[in-house]
Write a structure and sequence with these properties.
single chain, alpha/beta, Rossmann fold, eight-stranded mixed sheet, five-stranded parallel sheet, 13 strands, 38% helix
């Protein structure tokens, strides 16, 4: 397979061109012939004009790429090495929503030919590729795994907004259904991943490795969030505690905060789902999830307490929330816990204004039914900096005072400012 791809006698398809699939497709297109497929024709039209709908890549990142962008499933028949990079969210009940990956499997199955490869990058629970996706491929294509086509799994490790740890610079886990497929898949990925590849012993091991990477971070952050709640009651600054503890060589330095996005706050539920399916109710993972999911309500209640402490009526208060994307310096608002925080404040009848230099007002309105302000209007009772965008980091105490009324309150969720007491502003951070 690799030799035919290298000679451009065969093509790679990447199904799903979001923040994972598009960088991957463009990286492969520097070496191979690629078909970039997405069901969203509007996104495809933008990519044909060298525009990344996710605002992660610059126009020059498209230069020199041998890629054909398409929303026509028939074009997938021209490819022989298919990579599925569609999202795997959870539904409103925190149950894995595998419809995108199953739909992608159906599309690939219709295009599958003898000798083809299918590699999944979407985050799933261990066993999903072989037990759930392969049967779809076989049923739709009429082909049989092993005898007619090969399978693999290579979990994505894209970090949105990170310009240092880019796709090519992150060690890539690869796996295959047998030794031959593992070898070929490793060669294909190794051609574009300069950091190298790690060959997992099985597809299930690779799936499990991916899902625990983010589960581990989720649990570490939940511990920090619980500490923040405890230390707040003690009147101790959590960040100062962490700085002191970090002087020990083996202390793991994590920080409290809102846990949103498509990975850390989602992936643990995939492991939970499989675990419960097997009859084991996980305790630690779910405990961490409960703490992190409860943080928007905790922060909103704390801000209301601060308003009352300063003699302000929450029902008549006006608060500015700065930032609504799920993390700093990205445009992605999906699964943003800031939206949950805003709704919690609204339960107290607080008037909330929201600004964000990266988020699309139309997307925020469509996804959450919330409106973005172009600029702060002033006369706020409190300002809550929810996301640590670079554009916010140079703001001074005087700036915050200039947009607030008497007895100003600044809530700094990311610990960006570290404003000392005694400067006429009530400062609180996690």
């Amino acid at each position: 397979m690799f030799d035919n791809l290298e000679k451009k006698q065969k093509s790679i398809s990447v199904i799903g061109l979001g923040y994972v699939g598009l960088p991957l497709a463009l990286a492969f297109a520097k070496k191979f012939r690629v078909i970039g497929f997405d069901i969203n024709a509007e996104r495809i039209a933008l990519m044909r004009r060298n525009i990344d709908p996710s605002s992660e890549l610059a126009p020059e990142d498209f230069a020199g790429a041998d890629i054909h962008f398409s929303a026509d499933p028939a074009d997938l028949q021209q490819a022989h090495f298919h990579i599925v990079a569609v999202p795997t969210p959870v539904d409103e009940h925190k149950v894995p929503d595998l419809r995108p990956v199953f739909s992608a499997s159906d599309l690939v199955g219709k295009a599958l030919k003898p000798g083809d490869y299918v590699v999944y990058e979407s985050t799933v629970y261990p066993g999903c590729t072989e037990e759930d996706c392969v049967p779809i491929l076989e049923k739709v294509s009429g082909l049989r795994l092993g005898a007619d086509f090969k399978i693999g799994y290579s979990p994505e490790r894209i970090n949105p907004g990170d310009k240092e740890h880019t796709l090519e610079k992150i060690l890539k886990i690869v796996s295959g259904g047998d030794l031959e497929s593992l070898t070929e898949i490793a060669r294909v990925y190794g051609a574009v991943i300069t950091a190298g590849v790690y060959e997992a012993s099985s597809i299930k091991v690779a799936e499990a490795a991916k899902v625990i990477e983010n589960t581990q971070r989720d649990l570490n952050i939940s511990f920090m969030n619980e500490l923040a709640i405890i230390f707040d009651r003690m009147g101790i600054d959590t960040q100062e505690v962490l700085e002191a503890a970090a002087t020990k060589w083996n202390f793991l330095k994590f920080y409290p905060g809102l846990v949103g996005g498509h990975c850390i706050g989602v992936d643990p539920y995939y492991l939970v789902h499989k675990s419960m399916e097997l009859g084991y109710n996980p305790q630690v993972i779910l405990s961490g999830r409960r703490i992190n999911d409860s943080m928007p309500a905790f922060i909103a209640q704390r801000l209301v307490q601060l308003l009352i402490q300063k003699g302000k009526n929450p029902g008549a208060a006006k608060v500015l929330v700065m930032g609504i994307t799920f993390k700093e310096n990205v445009a992605d608002i999906r699964n943003s816990k800031v939206a949950d925080l805003v709704r919690e404040l609204m339960k107290f009848s607080v008037c909330v204004h929201i600004t964000d230099p990266h988020a699309s007002p139309n997307e925020v309105a469509h996804e959450y039914g919330l409106s973005l302000m172009d600029e702060p209007s002033g006369d706020y009772d409190a300002v809550l900096v929810a996301v640590g965008h670079s554009a916010y980091r140079d703001f001074t105490v005087d700036y915050f005072k200039s947009i607030m009324r008497d007895h100003p309150i600044l809530v700094d969720l990311k610990g960006v400012y570290g404003i000392p007491a005694g400067n006429g502003i009530l400062y609180w951070r996690l």
